[in-house]
User: What shape does this take?
Amino acid sequence: MKSGGSSFASPTKRRWRGLVIGVLGLVFLSMLVPLVFLLGPHNGFQSPGYASEQSSVSNPIGRYEKYSIADTPNQSKRDRSRHVDDLVRRLAPTITKDLFKKSMHDSKNETISSSTVSSTDQKRGSSAPKREVPRSSPSKSNTSVGGPVHITDSPKNAEESGNQCELKYGSYCLWRREHREDMRDAMVKKLKDQLFVARAYYPTIAKLRGQDKLTREMKQNIQDLEHIFSEATTDDDLPPHTKKKLRSIEAVIAKAKSFPVDCNNVDKKLRQIFDMTEDEANFHMKQSAFLYQLAVQTMPKSLHCLSMRLTVEYFRSASDVETSLSEKYTDPALHHYVIFSNNVLASSVVINSTVMNAKESATQVFHVLTNRQNYFAMKLWFIRKTYNEATVQVLNIEDLNLDKDQLHPSLPVEFRVSYQARMDYLSTFSNAHYLLPEIFQNLKKVVVLDDDVVVQRDLSPLWSLNMGGKVNGAVQQCSVKMNVLKSYLGKNNFNENSCAWMSGLNVVDLDRWRGLDLTKTHQRLVKELSTQDGQNEAVALRASLLTFQDLIYVIDENWVLSGLGHDYGINSQAIQRAAVLHYNGNMKPWLEMGITKYKHYWKNFLIKEEQFLSDCNISS
Assistant: This one.
């Protein structure tokens, strides 16, 4: 019985032992499979589909360079920082401010990390489409990847930009364009670039734990460069230890690039720096335009010196004897020229150029009307100087016994007219011009010259003009139509297709003026327009244009060439053909800001043999 029981139990034990081993094997496999899935695919291999999808993801800045994500997740920190550095360098100079402002709100949505893209693509099973950041249109010449990106406007855009500048700041933009200098200070430029990069990385580095030393070092370098730029703007102004500072900040930036940075933080910082820089540039533009206007509208120190020296000499001189020429002053048979000016040299050049080009100077009489401040200087100058056989009379307009209750005597004025992306300088009669019939009661006709003109031909044919009942013979400025000035002229009736007229050279029929009583008409217009518009300048322009409505006799345009005080593009042949050159605009020939290539036409008629000129450092 024992032997039989034993033989029966042995197969049963072996069966149970097999089941136990099988169960243990299943348990072991159930534990092994998760470990394989957790460790095996990421450390040993990747599925072909995932690898192709991940490698096909491109950099969002796809227009500049395709930058594929690494095939392995153990990408070094240096490679990632180099990628960010390339992104910063390419992104900073190519996106305009409008795009910055537009994308600030959606920056988080537009920046896609590699992990998000790869995980999304793994689920979709297709490659991600390329996304490009819009940028301002580059120049036609392509720039190689990795080099600096230069953005230049097309000729059309550049022209529109220049016109907008002229509309806002006037002739300052023309002067700046002609006197612009290339950037020569390479060290200053390099330091500024490094400062911008350091400022972009600093906020991110400051947030890293355990990097307090690097943060302090970067902050110190930034402050050092800011201190240098507060005292130096050129390479010659830089202190001796500048190269050491440059190497120091380059080393700090290299350390910062070795750490992983958040692209959003760098991007936002660059946008802030861009906005601050543009605001600073706008401030300097306005400041420069203001200083330019101050320079062109203020009497130069040398001319002020000349006026003061002549005034002092007038009262010191014992020979204060002016030849009595009252008969010539009032003789209507002679050719009378009227000049309104407070500039001794300018009025002298006008008279000298007119006399030098006249066939007969004995019939010429010049009446210089000035203010009380410059009267004695003018008087002494023209007593000391002779202009062939011509006669010169100096009058103080403020001391004349005239009815000035409604009109305040003033010198000629110019107006900058901006319209349709264009700019012109329109010179018209001032209030003082409307006193001419009362000042010269015995004269029938006069020629009015501005003090910023140069005469190159004989003007005697002007006295034989048949003006057909018109009052004012003037050259028209047809680039400025009356409909352009509609906002200035108000609701008054006028021919919208007629051209605006210019002062500078005007033939005035005083008899016809008195018959129409234009002075009273002007006074009425000034009073009416003053109630509508409180600006005196606008009132003066509107009143002058409306007073002579339909009373302008058009002189041939070859008589006067205007624009030498603001237009750099005048043809030299046109200058030679013109009888009179008019320097209307801000850049007068006696100013340092004047257009250099036109100055010699004015200086040719400047009287140089005068001790006062050298004493006041007036270059001839």
In short: The longest helix spans residues 2-43. The longest strand covers residues 364-370.
